[in-house]
Amino acid sequence: MLSLCPNFSPTAAAAIVVSSCKLDSAASAAALIPQRTRNSLFGCSHMHPTNSSSCSSWMLRQRHTPIVMASGTSLDSQDTSSARGDKRPVHGLSEVVVGVLGGGQLGRMLCQAASQLAIKVIVLDPMENCPASSLSHYHMVGNYDDSATVQEFAKRCGVLTVEIEHVDAATLEKLEQQGVDCQPKASTIRIIQDKYLQKVHFSRHSIPLPKFMQIDDLNSAKQAGVLFNYPLMIKSKRLAYDGRGNAVANSEEELSSAVDALGGYDRGLYVEKWAPFVKELSVIVVRGRDNSVVCYPVVETIHRENICHIVKSPADVSWKIMKLATDVAFRAVSSLEGAGVFAVELFLTADGQILLNEVAPRPHNSGHHTIESCYTSQYEQHLRAVVGLPLGDPSMKAPAAIMYNILGEDEGEPGFLLAHQLIGRALGIPGASVHWYDKPEMRKQRKMGHITIVGPSVGVVKARLRSMLREETVDGETAVLPRVGIIMGSDSDLPVMKDAAKILREFDVPTEVRIVSAHRTPEYMVSYASSAWKRGIQVIIAGAGGAAHLPGMVAALTPLPVIGVPVRASTLDGLDSLLSIVQMPRGVPVATVAINNATNAGLLAVRILGVRDLNLQTRMAQYLEDRRDEVLAKGEKLEEGGWEDYLNSQR
Fold first, then answer.
1. What is the CB-side half-sphere exposure of residue 19 using CA atoms within 13 A?
2. Which of the pair, 541 or 71, is modelled with greater confidence?
């Protein structure tokens, strides 16, 4: 049960964390009201459990107005004790208090993960109402790049970590010398926050990269153009993220304007050879304090105006590319020091190369989806890593996921309205979860939240995303994608194959039925078989008579399970079809059933789908019980009336 507490900050009630599109009514109402209206209606908006008086009093003590700290000053002792509750024992999974430099959306989601483990997270951020403020154990208001402030903040935590790498690395080095536990290490932060030093570091460790060189003046920039050709990617060494600090020069004439756009050579610039990538990939790598390492599945990132817009998990690439990308990411992180989450952004080129783009030493936008799609989210994983708990399982618990960033479409209230309209549509999408960061100010292209959609296949989650964006609907309803494809070489096979369709309809499994001839429409067969899994098909039932080439040809073109149904033809009674299907060469498996028994093909498809679908498993169990009861009823009838009456009743 949730309630509203009257003394808390005005913006926290707007936070939405929705699982399967189910919202607490209070949070739902708050989330769909524009910010200024929310502030007036919900003058207090922290939600807390009401079934524990001790928990309520903890909330009142710990999440009062954040303590503001000016650079180089100390906190008032009375305010400090009320905000920190230093004398209270810690009873979470770890007694280490985690201090986070930065209190943005990443810090917010760290706090959410920490609450599940009862780990205390305190944040340092200059904004009084930063996204993490309302959820943190304690929020110190101050600059995370100010040395005195960071040193004072460090006194309050057992381990110091970051949600943004643009902090004072020299201060972290000083703190480490004083015995403060910083994770990841200050040396890693120093390398990562300067993108040129980052390139130099990874180059020394033989990590594949686009070619690069430092530029200090127009002559060196022109030299880079001669060496690398155009277009050239010009980048700022520091304070570059979300597309900021990047400029493209398409010719020598554009060099000066591109450099000026970045603030001139004095800002510190370098050039990268243009990477002709076909996809941008990312791998989240986690290293524990014991040097254990786990890697999340490779994802594809799609950017809009240089800002991450969509993340697809898993990436639509071959297993070989996934393995190569994971290996590059692992080697890159292995060259750095410290525990925590590292996001490794990569380029995939047309010739199959993997090139490292950059690394972030913290949770990352490309890992947001892990909250819903993986057994252990990147945020929980980061906390486990920095405090020394065993690392969790990074594998996906859903077959497919898409993360969609909610970026500001307009300034101010119009922007809030558009975002809330999108959220409203997301609430009607199966498998969708909404995260609203509760930022008080809306700006164009600002990251305001994200939506993750999980589903049984990549095709399904893509269709759900299109529906959410109003790009694909059927009669006003979300399009239902088929899970099973029933194909046959001729319409003469349909009287047999219809039995599979009937079974699948009985189990409410969406199905498509197509005529696909291996001999008369070979191009269509290749297209159908190779694209089926990307469209969301999970099982293919292929009926064929005579030579029965269709099931085997399709099985050779798709990673999906294929069930062949031998159809009785005018000669050989279907034996030729059966023998053709079962004698596929090694490496091309095709399941089969009895001649003309499409019913069993449908039932086998249901059982295959039921491996990941508890509803279908339960319904299949009920189907078996119903068949048993039918047989028992027939036996009782035979015993009671005798065989003659039984036979007469069947006429």
1. 4
2. 541
547: left (phi over 0), alpha (psi -120 to 50) or beta: alpha
The burial of 276, by beta-carbon neighbours within 10 Å (0-12 exposed, 13-18 middle, 19 or more buried), is given as exposed
Whole-number Å distance between alpha carbons of 619 and 615: 6
pLDDT tens-digit readout, 219-243:
999 999 999 999 999 999 887 766 6
CB atoms within 10 A of CB 352: 12
Residue 69 has pLDDT above 80, yes or no: no
Residue 536 and residue 509 in contact, taking contact as beta carbons nearer than 8 Å: no
Identify the band that residue 479 occupies on the pLDDT scale cut at 50, 70 and 90: low
What confidence score (pLDDT) does residue 111 get? 97
The owner of tokens 């995303």 is 465
Sign of CA dihedral 407, 412, 414, 419: positive
Angle between helices 186-193 and 169-177 (to 10 degrees): 170
Using N-to-C axis directions, what is the helix angle for 412-426 and 458-468, rounded to 10°? 140
Mean pLDDT of 420-431: 94
Nearest to 185 by CA among 206, 197, 167: 167
Strand ranges (E), 176-276:
212-215, 232-236, 246-249, 269-273
Please give the pLDDT value at position 62: 39
The whole-model pTM stands at 0.78
Torsions phi, psi for 10 (to 5 deg): -75, -5
Residue pair 114/98 in contact (Cβ under 8 Å)? The answer is yes
**DSSP state, residue 398:** S
What Rg value do the Cα atoms of the chain yield, rounded? Answer: 30
The per-residue pLDDT of the chain, averaged, comes to 85
For residue 219, give every residue at least 6 positions away whose Cβ sits within 8 Å of its Cβ, in sequence order, or none. none
Which helix (H) or strand (E) segment holds residue 418: the answer is helix 412-426
Q: Report the Cα–Cα distance between both ends of the chain, in Å, rounded.
A: 62
Closest CA to 290 of 242, 219, 326, 338: 338
Most confident of 474-483, 543-552, 629-638: 629-638
pLDDT > 90? residue 471: no
Alpha-carbon dihedral 469, 473, 476, 481, rounded to 10 degrees = -120
Phi and psi at 416, nearest 5°, equal -60, -40
Whether residue 618 is predicted with pLDDT greater than 90 in this model: the reply is yes
| 627 class by beta-carbon count within 10 Å (0-12 exposed, 13-18 middle, 19+ buried) | exposed
Closest CA to 270 of 239, 233, 240, 241: 233
Q: How many CB atoms lie within 10 A of CB 344?
A: 27
* pLDDT tens readout for residues 485-528: 999 999 999 999 999 999 999 999 999 999 999 999 999 999 99
CB 260 within 8 A of CB 236: no
Looking at residue 525, its amino acid is M
Looking at residue 14, the DSSP 8-state letter turns out to be: G
What are phi and psi for residue 647, nearest 5 degrees? -65, -40
Whether residue 332 contacts residue 359, with contact meaning beta carbons closer than 8 Å, is answered with yes
Question: What's the CA angle centered on 521, arms 515 and 524, to 5 degrees?
Answer: 80
Q: Read off the DSSP letter of residue 276.
A: -
Which pLDDT band holds residue 570 (cuts at 50, 70, 90)? confident
